[in-house]
Amino acid sequence: MVKVAAVQAAPVWMDAQGTLEKTISIIEDAGRQDVRLVAFGEVWLPGYPFTIWLQPPMVAMEIVMKHRMNAIELGGPELKAVGEAAARAGTWVMMGFAERDQGSIYCSQALIDDRGEIVMSRRKLKPTHMERTVWGEGPVTDIKVAETPLGRVGGLCCWENIQPLNRQGMYQLGEQIHVACWPSFGMFKGVRAAYALSAEANMAESKSYAMEGSCFVLAPNSIITEESLDQITMGNEALREVVFAGGGAATVFGPDGYRLTDPIDEFTDGLAIADIDLSMIEAAKIFADPAGHYYRPDVARHVLDANAGPASANPAQAGAPESDEAA
User: Fold this and answer.
1) 23 and 157 share one domain
2) Which structural domain range is residue 310 located in?
3) Is 157 a catalytic residue?
4) Which of 107, 157, 158, 215 is the catalytic position?
5) pLDDT exceeds cutoff 70 at 50
6) 183 and 303: one domain?
7) Is 131 a catalytic residue?
8) Cβ distance 168 to 290 under 8 Å?
């Protein structure tokens, strides 16, 4: 049995240092509860730039700039501090963060082991809609799974989790523990036209990922606080009708789709903690293994192409013949 936790909490919005301090506190709390893997939501550090969905791009530029200026580097002091906290707590950490790489920002995840080392990092392959005004695209190699003592661990950000080919790629890599990281669901809460952005809809996607892939799914997400609403709405009172405080929905699902954690009040910081047993995956795969006995590659084949894209984007490809790597 392994104890895992999906974080539901509010970052110190658009404040990398403040959020880092809170991150360390959460990791320490998880360690005291003997959690072996703790997972944070989408761009937890320094927070999701909700304003881009509420204002025209140039009006929202003030928030975009704050987000950029609080983005962190993969090898920077912030993730080093997270690693040190993970080592002290004796827990693994899947961190969602805004990653700076020279002049570009990416929506990233990093898996940090219980010695404080980064063992895997990845970037969101295709930012969704307005997110493309903020983040670049991840490389073709960023469908990946890490071998760990806890099991084979992977992750996807937000609506990457609803892309069928992303899912199939992860399943074919033998993923056993998946981190589906989400932002807060306080934006457009209760708006029928935006049901696809609701907690109900996106936790259903997390649940179906677990059942479809016969894997455990940790679904962490953030909370919008009343204090951050003024910044998010840039003082526009009319926007208070479409973005709200709360929006927490962190959950852990079993490989049969069963919810393993009780709901946490949507306004309250907390850890959705579950004890997981990888043998449950074996029981689930008796019925359906989407990358094995329930897969028909002769009918429809999924390929992970490590050499896709123009040669200029992948120097290793220049002058080399095309090659597809089947997952």
Assistant:
1) yes
2) 296-327
3) no
4) 158
5) yes
6) no
7) no
8) yes
CB atoms within 10 A of CB 248: 28
DSSP string, 252-298: EE-TTS-B-S----TTS-EEEEEEE-THHHHHHHHH--TTTTT--TT
Q: Which of 22, 78, 99, 124 is catalytic?
A: 124
- Nearest residue to 257 via CA among 225, 312, 211: 211
- pTM higher than the cut 0.90: yes
Distance between CA atoms of 269 and 258, rounded to whole angstroms?
Answer: 23
Are 31 and 75 part of one and the same domain? yes
Residues 56 and 184 in one domain: yes
Domain tally, the chain: 2
pLDDT computed for residue 303 by the predictor: 77
Identify the CATH number of the domain in which residue 166 sits: 3.60.110.10
pLDDT at 318: 36
Q: Is 42 a catalytic residue?
A: yes
Task: Please indicate, yes or no, whether residues 204 and 107 belong to a single structural domain of this protein.
Answer: yes
- Among candidate residues 22, 42, 131, 160, the one labeled active-site is 42
In this predicted structure, the answer to whether residue 323 has a pLDDT above a threshold of 70 is: no
Q: What b/e sequence results for 261-285 when a residue is b if at least 16 CB atoms lie within 10 Å of its CB, and e otherwise? A: beebebbebbbbbbebebebbeebb
Examine the domain organization and report whether 168 and 317 are in the same domain.
no
53-65 mean pLDDT: 96
Residue with tokens 């997270």: 82
Using CA atoms, how far apart are residues 74 and 145, in angstroms rounded to an integer? 18
> What is the tens place of the pLDDT at every residue in 16-31?
999 999 999 999 999 9
pLDDT of amino acid 315: 40
pLDDT in tens, 90-123: 999 999 999 999 999 999 999 999 999 999 999 9
